[in-house]
Amino acid sequence: MRVGLFGGTFNPVHNGHLAVAKEVKDGFPLDRIIFFPSAIPPHKETKVVVNADDRINMLRIAISATPDFSESFAISDIELKRSGPSYTIDTVYQYQSKMADDNQLYLIMGIDAFFEIDTWKSYLELFKIIPIIVMSRPQNEQHFNGAKWKTLETFIQSNISDDYEYSFSEKKYSHSENMPIHIYDVTPIDISATKIRKRIKKGMPVQPMLPPGVEGYIKSKGLYT
Ligand code: ATP
């Protein structure tokens, strides 16, 4: 099994998350994707992040609403069960120790998250233990124009290692000691949780950015107002 680990704040989960996950799952391809919301996001302002139960409930609603998603997507509370802030490296080690050896794990993230990776705990070690799939994202479109993905390459060389070699046919960076970094062009979807939260606060409509049921949940709980 090829399993993708997709972490995030999911504050709230939106159609961008679901669409890119589906695209990577079908196209990369992967057998399964596990969404794992973070407990106390070390990189986010905690005051705007609603509690973990609400974020996980919204993920459950989002995934169960579509049969296609409920078959191939799972939700994990692995980071919510640990005390203190969420560190991806700890999550990856936890998954590697509990999953059968014939499972290949991949860490999935958008390029905006990747560009912050050098602030993550033990990030250099992370590149040694798990292959990463970096997805494009419209807010970072400038990185894909002209010399496509060039900014990403510069980032990799200056912050991770200059020993990576890129293969155009395989769309991946290989390294003698580190695991590969795959790049994946997803159909651009200009949705972010920030945009959704701002619109809710202003009383503006948020459809079609949210999965069925999630808007109702947000309204019933009075979140983001
Ligand atoms: P916020 O606006 O609060 O920062 P977000 O929309 O970026 O939230 P997160 O939960 O922080 O959502 O994202 C989880 C992961 O999903 C990150 O790796 C992020 O890059 C990726 N992601 C989110 N939305 C998209 C999108 N529209 N296209 C590609 N990747 C996305």
Describe this structure in words.
The chain contains ten helices and eight strands. By secondary structure, it is of the alpha/beta class. It has one domain (2-195): Rossmann fold. An eight-stranded mixed beta sheet has the order 3-2-1-4-5-8-7-6, with helices on both faces. A hairpin with a 6-residue loop joins strand 7 (172-174) and strand 8 (181-184). Helix 5 (88-98) packs parallel to helix 7 (123-129). The structure holds adenosine-5'-triphosphate (ATP). Residues 8-11, 16-17, 20, 109-110, 112-113, 135, 137, 186, 189, 191-194 line the site of adenosine-5'-triphosphate.
**Helical proportion?**
25-40%
Q: What's the total count of β strands?
A: 8
What is the terminal separation in angstroms?
41 Å
Q: What's the average pLDDT?
A: 91
The bound ligands are: adenosine-5'-triphosphate
Based on CA atoms alone, the radius of gyration comes out at 17 Å
Provide the structure class: alpha/beta
